Amino acid sequence: MRLRSASLIVLVVLVSMALIPMISTAGYIPPFSVNTTAPTAVSTGSTFNVTFDAPYGFTNYTLTAYLAADNLTGVSSSNATTIHLNSTKNDVLTATITAPSVPGPLVITYIETANFSSSSVRYESTFSVQILKPIVFHAKLINSGNAPIYNVNVEFILNSVEVGNETVHEIPAKSSVNVNYTYSSSTISNNKVVLNVIRGENTLNVTVANTQVTLPDGHNYYVTKFYYGPVPNYSWIYYVAGAVVVFMVILAMSAGRRRNIPRKPKWKK
């Protein structure tokens, strides 16, 4: 009898221990959040990717993202200004977006849901990508020789810093090729994302890594200057100069009037 009771107690203990994990995990839902990977800034009209990375282990990932800006001209994604992505088990979703043709912040608000067992989870957040108007640098490469020239490298140096290069695969004999380089590097200034260029006078140096190829001035390099940003208004100088002239005229006229006043003879008292 005692042996039978002891066996029953052991059986109850073993069953309880087996049920503890089931009881402890019943109703448990892991934390659910989404990390985004996106560029800080892109140039107008360019195409870029945004990656939404959710935790692994859920199912039926569904994402809806909304694009907003002051001017959405030129923007496009898989569904214009609303993006819909879904996957049964893939926790990483990627959206391809074409930036608007107008500079300014592009605000992206997204909602992602998923399932864990019989429960549903949801995450919502907002971030922005700054749309910048790039600067396009131009160079005309001339081949004056009688044979084609291949793989010509062109370097663009902005304010003594190389910012990019382009390779021309072929310049036919006795002909020229136009090269364009789009500069859209960004930086932070006064807590704003702006184009990484001096607001004012900038110096651009274009160098061709082949002495047989020249630029329009006959050399394989040239230096030019350009102004970025609003051109200063110097009209106030003309206004000040005009005021000075008027003042001098009035002063001269006043002096002339004093000279024309008849003086009192010394013999009169």
From TrEMBL:
Protein name (Swiss-Prot/TrEMBL): CARDB domain-containing protein
Organism expressing this protein natively: Oxyplasma meridianum
Transmembrane segments: 236-256
Keywords linked to the UniProt accession: Membrane, Transmembrane, Transmembrane helix
